[in-house]
Amino acid sequence: MKIMQVEKTLVSSNRVQAMGHRPLLVVKEKSGGRSVAVDAVGCIPGDWVICVGSSAAREAAGGKDFPSDLTIIGIIDHWQEN
Known about the structure:
Blueprint: E1 2-10, E2 24-28, E3 34-39, E4 48-53, H1 54-61, E5 70-75
Parallel strand pairs: 3-5
Antiparallel strand pairs: 1-2, 1-4, 2-3, 4-5
């Protein structure tokens, strides 16, 4: 699991059909690295979130066949970046 911050929404007009209509968000790590994550919880830019990767990301997004390598599974209510 990783703690990351939602930066912005990623708009993609051409997707794999299995992804459905789940939002894609650009998230960043404290070190500045950016990734794209599937939003499974309904967060907004600026939120600090918990993300999972690999097979846990596929399960959290919808199933073993879901094409995701990073999924947001929770919004952190109180977090101060050090």
